[in-house]
C-alpha cells in the first residue's frame, strides 16, 4: 500500500473528512487531530503528507501531545526514549524530558559522530537506513520509541531491530499520527504500537 495515498477527489474533501473521522475520547485529541496539516502530493504525487509542524505552532496543542504521551508512559519505568529523525527527535526529546528519561536519537546515515550500528529498511521506492550510537543504550533497558507518523511501519521496524540488537527491551512504539489499522492492538515485530490520532488515508 502506498504511503498516505490520495483517494478519488483529491484534497478538497480533506477538512470535512478529517473532521468526521476525528476521535472523541480525549478532548485534547481533537485539537491534535485538527492541528495536523495534510498536504496532498508532497513530497511526490499521491502522497498525503501529514505535516505536524502546524501542531508545533500551537504551544498548547504541542504541550497536550507531549502530556498525553507522558501520562501514558509515566508509570512504565521507561529509562530511555528513542526518537526517529526527523520529527521523532522533536517529540521524543520532549517526552524524554517529561518522563525524566534519557533521550536516544535514531538518525539517518552519517549524522552520528560515534560508533554506530545501522539498520536498512525498505521504503515504497528504494531503501533508507537508521543508525544509533552503540553505547547509547544498555541491555535490559526499558525503551519507548517515538516518531511523528507511521505508514508502512518500515521505519519503526528498523528502530525496533536496532534496539533489539543491543538487548534493550522495547516496551512500546508511539506515533502522533498513523494509519487507522494501528489504532487498537496492532503489533510490529511483536511490539505494541500506540497512535494518538488516525490520519486520513
Ligand atoms: P513508514 O516507514 O512507511 O511507516 O513511514 C514513516 C516515516 O516516514 C516517518 O518517519 C514519517 O515522518 C515519514 N512519512 C511517511 N509517510 C508520511 C506521510 N504521509 N506524512 C508524513 N510523514 C510521512
UniProtKB/TrEMBL annotation:
GO terms for biological process: adenine salvage; AMP salvage; purine ribonucleoside salvage. Residues 10-22 have a biased composition (Basic and acidic residues). Residues 76-181 form the Phosphoribosyltransferase domain. Pathway: Purine metabolism; AMP biosynthesis via salvage pathway; AMP from adenine: step 1/1. It holds the Pfam family Pribosyltran. It comes from the Eukaryota. PANTHER family: ADENINE PHOSPHORIBOSYLTRANSFERASE, ADENINE PHOSPHORIBOSYLTRANSFERASE 5. Keywords: Cytoplasm, Glycosyltransferase, Purine salvage, Transferase. GO terms for cellular component: cytosol. Its EC number is 2.4.2.7. Residues 1-22 are annotated as: Disordered. Homodimer. The keyword Transferase applies. It is found in: Cytoplasm. The keyword Disulfide bond does not apply. It catalyses: AMP + diphosphate = 5-phospho-alpha-D-ribose 1-diphosphate + adenine. Its main location: cytoplasm. One of its GO terms (molecular function) is adenine phosphoribosyltransferase activity. Belongs to the purine/pyrimidine phosphoribosyltransferase family. It comes from Spirodela intermedia (Intermediate duckweed). This is adenine phosphoribosyltransferase. InterPro entries: Ade_phspho_trans (IPR005764), Adenine_PRTase (IPR050120), PRTase-like (IPR029057), PRTase_dom (IPR000836). HAMAP family: Aden_phosphoribosyltr.
Amino acid at each position: 500500500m502506498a504511503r498516505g495515498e490520495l483517494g478519488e477527489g483529491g484534497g478538497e474533501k480533506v477538512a470535512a473528512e478529517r473532521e468526521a473521522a476525528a476521535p472523541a475520547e480525549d478532548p485534547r485529541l481533537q485539537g491534535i487531530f485538527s492541528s495536523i496539516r495534510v498536504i496532498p502530493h508532497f513530497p511526490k504525487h499521491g502522497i498525503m503528507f501529514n505535516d505536524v509542524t502546524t501542531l508545533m505552532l500551537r504551544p498548547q496543542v504541542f504541550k497536550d501531545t507531549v502530556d498525553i504521551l507522558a501520562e501514558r508512559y509515566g508509570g512504565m519505568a521507561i529509562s530511555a526514549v528513542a526518537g526517529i529523525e526527523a520529527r521523532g527527535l522533536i517529540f521524543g526529546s520532549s517526552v524524554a524530558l517529561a518522563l525524566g528519561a534519557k533521550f536516544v536519537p535514531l538518525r539517518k546515515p552519517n549524522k552520528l559522530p560515534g560508533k554506530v550500528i545501522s539498520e536498512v529498511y525498505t521504503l515504497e521506492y528504494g531503501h533508507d537506513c537508521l543508525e544509533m550510537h552503540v553505547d547509547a543504550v544498555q541491555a535490559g533497558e526499558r525503551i519507548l520509541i517515538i516518531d511523528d507518523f507511521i505508514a508502512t511501519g518500515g521505519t519503526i521496524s528498523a528502530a525496533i531491530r536496532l534496539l533489539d540488537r543491543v538487548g534493550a527491551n522495547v516496551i512500546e512504539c508511539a506515533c502522533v499520527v498513523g494509519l487507522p489499522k494501528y489504532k487498537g492492538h496492532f503489533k510490529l515485530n511483536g511490539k505494541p504500537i500506540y497512535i494518538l490520532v488516525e490520519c486520513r488515508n
